[in-house]
Amino acid sequence: MLEVLDPPAVRRWSRLAAENLGRAREEIDALNVFPVPDGDTGTNLHLTMLSAAEALEGLPGDADAATTWRTLAQGALLGARGNSGVIVSQALRGLAEVFGTAEGRGADLGRGLARAAELARAAVERPVEGTLLSVLGSVAVAVRDLSGDLASVVRRAAEEARAALRRTTGQLDVLARNGVVDAGGAGLALILESLAAVVTDSYTERLDIPAPAHRLTPEPEAGPSYEVMYLLEADTAAVGALRGELDALGDSLVVVGGEGLWNVHVHVDDAGAAIEAGIRHGRPYRIKVTHLAAAGRTHRAARGRGVVAVAAGEALGAVFERSGAVVVRRDPGASPSAAAVLAAIRQAGSEVVVLPNDSGTREVAAAAAEIAREEGTVVSVLPTRASVQGLAALAVHDPLRRFDDDVVAMTEAAAHTRYGHVWVADRVVMTSAGLVRPGDVLGVIDGDAAIVGADLVETALEVVGRMVSASSELVTLLEGSGAPGGLMRAVQDRLAGERPDIEVIRYEGGQGGYPLLIGVE
């Protein structure tokens, strides 16, 4: 019998909870009718707690309480799956806030569960009774004023979780119609049963999860088609604005986390818009899109192998089209919408390589790829940061190769292509190469400012001279709109005189802003 919930006990609890959820996964999945009947709540909770337990295994054995609880909450946040998993991760954060600085006695558990219930409910944009939140809230109320030993408090918490779970059937109409208790609440009750087992050293009993009252054939509720989840690096103010945007797009919105890292969950019809909202307010990653309403909502992908290329401007887009790509055009300095990239992927084939050709477009392309994968398309987004890298990748594309081999070959071709450009400044800019004033010419190599010059042609020649090496074999030049006549010719003539062994390919790119784009392979 434990008197305090110390770090070793927290480790045992997290592992036992993950194991018990794993054993009960199918039983809990069978209860899942809300918010959508997708039968994965047990699986999601199991994976969430498993992530928390595995995070603790990476700590040294003598880690203190603050480190242990912080790691538990962070592991759950990073590995949270589904609506219920995200909420449980926030509940663990509430417990961590209290236990990280407390002795770990009975009264601390009461305060910890109260904080867990508070944070979890605040994370859900539109809370619904008869769910995991109701079970957690009832538990918090039942133990908040208890001052007994840890074992008596944890037993009371587990007892109330069982009772509150059975009440959920009468609290939510969809549960009553299907004769089930809430699946998320069942998972939470099992997590608390596991805690009671660790504290009381009684590992033989396991929560008897109430089975459906009748054969369960839930009808899909009317609602959005996609579940969108991602981790987001953003400050608190940005997350507040993001909540408003996502709430207007769909439902089942849950945002948990803090200190610059958040886990975002929402159900929407426009998955691309939900991800783009995240991009506007921070840096989303580990993006996951799940198709919730498959019937009548899926898109049949074209058959065969294809390439999607993002291009700034009509003329540059035509260059990629002549090379066989499906092109998504974007305005200079802007990113295309995820919907536009997704439409191009669907058009391109059942196996598709996407060339974003711009650092700012990569997240949008990744979001569209996630949606396409959910629909059954095999998609790979290459890390091309410039149009010349995209052209290099497209030049070695072979639809007769195995898809993975083709991706490797295209990726290597892009990686071996240095990229540069020249820009005539229209404003004052401080760069690593020095101060740039209006009218100056800035030469950029591999994304870094390299040269500040006064003459466009001379600066372009110097950029190419720095990019070319003894092993260079090919230089690609893309002339922008408004470039002075003779710019590409001057570069070609200089190379012909100094490096006649190098092949030069010229295109009328028509891109705005940059008189010349340069690629060297």
Automatic annotation (TrEMBL):
Keywords: Kinase, Transferase. GO terms for molecular function: glycerone kinase activity. GO terms for biological process: glycerol metabolic process. The keyword DNA-binding does not apply. Residues 8-197 form the DhaL domain. InterPro entries: DegV_domain_contain (IPR050270), DhaL_dom (IPR004007), DhaL_dom_sf (IPR036117), FakA-like_C (IPR033470), FakA-like_M (IPR048394), YloV-like (IPR019986). It comes from the Bacteria. PROSITE patterns: DHAL. This is Dihydroxyacetone kinase.
